[in-house]
């Protein structure tokens, strides 16, 4: 096997996959860091986002133009879900909200299955053969995916570090009571968080869909690697989620060298166990944004 | 007289009482176990209706044995081993059925037969369990099926590829009962015929990328990939990624891959080298008789596994009649009524069959799904064709031997 084969068939797919995990893991980390619960409906929210984009594409839009719109719509849905379900359980122990999010996951999936059915479909019919860049084979959709991920991560980092609302989110993540005393409106920050999380899930669902197929279980299958990525990098850290996503994605693709291929899915589990044993706070000490 | 003798005396008297019970107009209980809830909930109602049609025909045309009725005990096997065991336990130990039609799913059949039906000596005929594992149950000749085992398909596919001049392949299979069973049968037959398996690996479903799996498989140097997976699931992802990266030139799938979703997503133009095997029904007077009767009863004869469900139920009834209601002779009787030689019996011809059995004549049931000549393991051979993509659908390009 040549180095180019290694890059083309193991490393590049790993990086693309890892970027998709990373975008999803950022959402998980935001919910955990600011609202302090594990959001199990994350995967199915990604499915919903992917299908909203599909509806727009079916209506005649170009897939990459449909993406921002789908992100906006899913952001609205995420706020709606928070208002309808999670907000109502705010005063109860967090475990109740965690379980409720599992229920929301099942509801979202059923809605998708009722509206669009269970057959897999695609944004664009046909196959795309890669372009050769000095021996490295890349498809346009892979380049777009990587670009979109970089834009999202840089944009989010800037927003959290520089803007007033980003600072408010970080303050609430640090200490919600103190933030409220200092004049941060927790309600608005919660809404803002859900808007960002909704948009991010739609992006991860869309990017998974455009690189494979769109089907009703796609998001659910993403959930475990996304959680593994978030915990691996350090819960509550955006850079950690990105790092974790890339590690999990690349590790899954490279695992076929040492393990039979049917254990590929177990790689994320194994990494998760290992990091919990060796470094439970994650690679970049997790806790606050 | 000590206690032991007393006990055995009482036992003997009770036994005699059972033996001398009047033999006329006795009803017979049969179980009908199916995946009413669970993953095949959408298919199960039609399958159960088809089986009920057979039992109703028996009851309308003179009943079973000496004017008795077939009493159907319905159980939900839910397409999973635990529920199947519970449902079978209830049917066998509480309702005292002497035979069951179903369970439906392979895993359910394995559990229900191994833990309940076979130890109790109850005949089981499944209309839809296709796993090769069912052949290997140590069943004391009590487990039969009216649907062909995937083993036949895997082997037929191996022979077809050999006949088409393909001698070196890589195999990617979904790691479940379906994919693994097919892959093992295929591998055994292909290697026995002198072919080379240049790559052989299982995969889990639901992953976003299988490019590294495919790269590993392609390293063996084969240019044909055989995929045992579902075309509206992971199989589609694998096929797409293999095509896009030029890992292989020719792609072969089994019935699971013969899905419209493949053509819809990848486009017929890209699938000129994609072939799939699938079972094909055989037009026959039996099939017509079943279709007419089932439509008249309000069923949809095109629904999947309805023909095999009907045949399973009708065969069970014939076997009970032939065995005179003696459960220890059921398996032998089932083989007798299903196999040549004998007077042909078509679906619905219960009165005729009953008369012939009463006269001591041999009968041969010709089922809606096929002749049902059971082999030693209680399996029936299947009919398969090889399909290619043509336009926006599949077109048969030849029979598979």
TrEMBL record, chain A:
The entry's keywords: Amino-acid transport, Cell inner membrane, Cell membrane, Membrane, Transmembrane, Transmembrane helix, Transport
Domain of life according to the entry: Bacteria
Bilayer topology term: Multi-pass membrane protein
GO cellular component, one term: plasma membrane
Pfam families listed in its UniProt record: BPD_transp_2 (PF02653)
Subcellular location, principal: membrane
GO biological process, any: L-isoleucine import across plasma membrane
Listed InterPro entries: ABC_transp_permease, BCAA_transport_permease
GO molecular function ontology, one term from the record: L-phenylalanine transmembrane transporter activity
Subcellular localization, as worded in the UniProt entry: Cell membrane
Membrane-crossing residue ranges in chain numbering: 6-33, 45-61, 67-86, 95-116, 143-160, 189-210, 222-251, 263-280
Lineage of source species: Bacteria, Pseudomonadati, Pseudomonadota, Betaproteobacteria, Rhodocyclales
Organism (species): Pseudothauera lacus
Protein name (database record): Amino acid ABC transporter permease
PANTHER family on file: BRANCHED-CHAIN AMINO ACID TRANSPORT SYSTEM PERMEASE PROTEIN LIVH, HIGH-AFFINITY BRANCHED-CHAIN AMINO ACID TRANSPORT SYSTEM PERMEASE PROTEIN LIVH
Membership in a protein family: Belongs to the binding-protein-dependent transport system permease family. LivHM subfamily.
TrEMBL record, chain B:
Keyword annotations: Signal
Top-level taxon of origin: Bacteria
SUPFAM superfamilies linked to this entry: Periplasmic binding protein-like I
Signal sequence, start to end: 1-25
Database matches in InterPro entries: BCAA_transport, Leu-bd, Peripla_BP_I
Annotated Leucine-binding protein domain residues: 28-338
Family: Belongs to the leucine-binding protein family.
Protein's name according to its UniProt entry: Amino acid ABC transporter substrate-binding protein
Source species of the chain: Pseudothauera lacus
Taxonomic lineage from the root: Bacteria, Pseudomonadati, Pseudomonadota, Betaproteobacteria, Rhodocyclales
